[in-house]
Sequence to fold (388 residues):
Amino acid sequence: MEILIHYAGEIGIKGKNRPLFEKKLLDNIRSSIRKIGYNKLKKTYRRISIELKSDYEKDKILNLLSCIPGIAYYCLAETCPLNIEEIKNTALNLAKKLNPKTFCISTNRSNKNFNLQSGEINETVGKYITENLKNKVDLEHHDLVIFIEIAEDKAYLYTKKIKGLGGLPVGVTGKLIALISGGIDSPVAALRMLKRGCSIVLLHFHNYSQHSQNVKNKILDLSKILSKFQFKTKLYNIDFKLIQQEIVKKIPSEFRMIIYRRLMFKIGEEFLKKELASGFVTGDSLAQVASQTIENLQVINEITKFPIFSPLIGSDKLDIIKEAKEIGTYDISVLPYEDCCSYLVAQHPITKSNLEEIKKLEEKLNINELIQLALKNYEYKEFINLSN
Ligand code: ATP
Ligand code: MG
Fold:
């Protein structure tokens, strides 16, 4: 038994970069399944194959593959030598096992040296099965498709395609710092960027005076889930308490949220440089909360020159919730917690902030000192791919 992996169509059209993308995907798969026994992992023409050991743990390995960005779909395949008699018999055995009323054969011949063309293989194998089993070939309405792939050194036969995550392999497009709160949006945003080929380092600002342990556990649990999608996930948990106290002391409540968030980027820049990352990810979604009006986002984002990616900016909350449920972060995100952004802010924070006004208010703070404070007070954790 082997697993045949089809990588996402997008990788296929990457022109000169394709070998790089393919290699990254191969490396990511290797890292992910390293603890599971397998015989061989290799790239064949536009596919990756994993030769399994006889006592392979099927569910574990399929589960791992379901979390690797860059995979379009994958299949548990029977293999046989490149010989039409062998192919016929392997297909017949598959049909016997599944015994469909109607079926069809779909062949893909990437190895053009094979002596029969795809259509001829479909016909020959289809005929052989109907003769032996009396099942009917029906090209339009069938219970079963037997897929045959003619690769360089063997044929792969399978009947089920399992959908993968799609997207691009983690690491091909760059590295970003993801600002993770305990809410629903930010983990979904981080995963969206993971699927665009970015590796992600998590950064959380923590107010230790609020239901401290709950929030901390929440962030750890969210980080564990995100670590399924990339090999290694780093989390910096920054103590925001003293910084927030300083802001509460000096800034009127309606402006605090804007300044908290500006400071998150300013402090975030230090971690970005430390990690050699190139930008930020946030869970902002336009107009979802007061901090996310066009005017406020402009003022918040102005503080950093690094690019800020907010992939949920145009998404509806219901769609974000659906995605959060699919990836398994929703149940953790909805546990009650006090978001540090809502810590001592006005009931009705301003929705149209003015940059000059905010900058003037910030003059009351010693921002460099606050950055130094953050750099002295953080916890660091690493999670190594936890999907198995
Ligand atoms: P989320 O559901 O992700 O918490 P939200 O809709 O509650 O988002 P805000 O609280 O305004 O919106 O936060 C917007 C974004 O700012 C978050 O998605 C996240 O990227 C970042 N952010 C907010 N609070 C924190 C925090 N404590 N630590 C790190 N990042 C944060
Ligand atoms: Mg929030």
